[in-house]
Design a protein that fits this description.
single chain; mainly beta; Immunoglobulin-like; elongated
């Protein structure tokens, strides 16, 4: 982002060591012979810091599949505004994360400690056993 005499890059930092969900027989809805619980929520939550801004910005979210069953849906939402001198809007409803990317939320000036959460849905024994992996990508744009 550049003005007449100043160039500066927006920095987005995530505080998370990743989320791995291990699904086992204790996730069966009602014991042997039943299907799995269909939904799982991330823990711990992820915190995002957006710094180095000079004005308006927006965050888009997408995913990059490594080994993913596309019948399993990933959604994300913003749980907090974080703190800082600017404002923040949108992103408080669950939004499906896809490979093409979507607008997630926007703000002004620096914000830190923005809490976000994930859920995976449509988990089922019918999807087959395996290790499924995808990467969630947040992209911050100067507006």
């Amino acid at each position: 982002m550049c003005s007449e005499k100043v160039c500066q890059a927006i920095t987005a930092t995530l505080s998370s060591s990743g989320w791995t969900e291990y699904i086992a027989n204790d996730d069966l809805q009602s014991g042997a012979g039943s299907d799995l619980n269909a939904n799982y929520w991330s823990w711990p939550d992820v915190y995002m810091d957006i710094t180095g801004t000079l004005g308006n910005w927006q965050v888009d979210v997408s995913r990059s599949d490594i080994n993913w069953n596309t019948d399993i849906m990933i959604s994300t939402r913003r749980l907090s505004d974080g703190t800082g001198s600017g404002t923040i809007a949108d992103g408080t409803s669950w939004q499906t994360v896809n490979i093409t990317g979507n607008y997630f939320f926007n703000g002004t000036q620096d914000r830190t400690g923005i809490q976000v959460k994930f859920t995976i849905a449509n988990v089922s024994l019918a999807r087959g056993a395996g290790a499924y992996t995808t990467t969630i990508i947040y992209t911050v744009y100067d507006n």
